Every structure is written in C-alpha cells, then in structure tokens.
C-alpha cells in the first residue's frame, strides 16, 4: 500500500499567511516607489520654476534703461529704478527696460516696457504694461513666477554698500540711477532661504 504525502491544514494556513505578508510588503514597496517618484517630479518642477524665474529677472535687469515712467494718473516715478520703497510691502522693484515683449504689439509700438516685481500672499509675480507712460486703459499683464513662498526680501548694491531701499540714488560705477546689483532672497518651507544675485547695466 502506497503512502500519500499531503499538506496539513496548519501548513496551508502558514503558507497562506506568508504569501499574504509578502503581498502586503510588495504593495508597500510599490507605494513607496510611486510616492518617491511623485515627490522627485514635484521637486524637479519646483527647481525648474525657480530657475525660470531667475532667468526672467536676470534678463529684465540686464535691459534697464535710463527712462522714468508715469502712472495712469500722470504722476512721474521718483527715479529710473525704484526698489523696496513701497509702504504696503507689495512692490519689490520697478523700472523701464529695453525690449517690449507684450503680445499683440504693432511695429509702431514702443520698444520700451515698464516692469514691476511684486510679492503678495506668498506669490512672486511680474507685472508689465504695454506703454511706459500708462493711461487708464493701458493693458497690464501679470504673471505668477513662484508660489507658496513664506517671504521675499530684496536688497540693492550701489558699488560700495548694500541697502534695502533704492529711490533715485546713483550707482558708484555708472551714470544710470540704478543699483549695480540686486539681491533677492526667497524663503520656502522646502528649501529655506534661496538667494539670487543679479547685475544691472549700472554695474558693468
């Protein structure tokens, strides 16, 4: 008579338990992998946004011209470059740059553009208008560059010292009444303080 080998009920239960544990471990590892991938993609997107903002600001500041602007009420700006002087702490800096990139412009449009950088409710934004001297109907284009920021600080270098305000003074190295360099410090929960340094034509 031949003996028949088989599994006991306990052995089957143990094997089932082990398979269940392995399945759960596999799902956890897969979830961790997907979460890590999503986190990495989010971080890379944030870094790309920071680099894009840096490139835009750098390009604007490199094109500063010695031209004051008027607002929609006809009031002339205090200087070619105004920075850190806004009492409501919204406007970081404003100036006129060469090269108008507003959409829909004709050949007869001005080649100059008024640019203002603002920080409000955790958002760093760039505001431009199609005409340097504004009217009540002058189109304004505002673009959000960075969001979810804790704070933003700006400082200006005159060739000798750094200051947190700039209204009309001359740079030590150039006749353009603009700072030789601009420092922008952005604070985010993930990266902490991120400092950007930009040079202007007054610093060349």
Automatic annotation (TrEMBL):
The keyword Transmembrane helix applies. PROSITE patterns: PROKAR_NTER_METHYL. InterPro entries: N_methyl_site, Pilin-like, T2SS_protein-GspJ, T2SS_protein_J. Its main location: membrane. It comes from the Bacteria. It is found in: Cell inner membrane. Keywords: Cell inner membrane, Cell membrane, Membrane, Methylation, Transmembrane, Transmembrane helix. The chain crosses the membrane at residues 6-30. GO terms for biological process: protein secretion by the type II secretion system. The keyword Cell membrane applies. It is a single-pass membrane protein. GO terms for cellular component: plasma membrane; type II protein secretion system complex. Belongs to the GSP J family. This is Type II secretion system protein J. The lineage of its organism: Bacteria, Pseudomonadati, Pseudomonadota, Alphaproteobacteria, Hyphomonadales.
């Amino acid at each position: 008579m031949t003996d028949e080998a088989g599994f006991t009920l306990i052995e089957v239960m143990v094997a089932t338990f082990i398979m269940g544990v392995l399945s759960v471990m596999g799902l956890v590892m897969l979830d961790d992998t997907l979460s890590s991938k999503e986190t990495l993609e989010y971080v890379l997107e944030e870094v790309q946004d920071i680099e894009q903002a840096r490139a835009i600001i750098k390009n604007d500041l490199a094109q500063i011209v010695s031209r004051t602007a008027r607002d929609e009420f006809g009031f002339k700006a205090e200087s070619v470059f105004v920075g850190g002087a806004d009492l409501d702490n919204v406007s970081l800096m404003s100036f006129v740059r060469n090269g108008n990139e507003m959409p829909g412009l004709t050949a007869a449009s001005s080649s100059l553009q008024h640019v203002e950088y603002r920080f409000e409710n955790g958002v760093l934004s760039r505001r431009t208008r199609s005409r340097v001297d504004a009217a009540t109907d002058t189109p304004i284009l505002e673009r959000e560059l960075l969001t979810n920021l804790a704070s933003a600080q700006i400082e200006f270098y005159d060739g000798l010292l750094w200051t947190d305000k700039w209204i009309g003074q001359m740079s030590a190295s150039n006749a353009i009444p603009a700072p030789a360099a601009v420092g922008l410090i952005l604070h985010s929960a993930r990266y902490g303080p991120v400092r950007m340094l930009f040079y202007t034509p007054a610093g060349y």
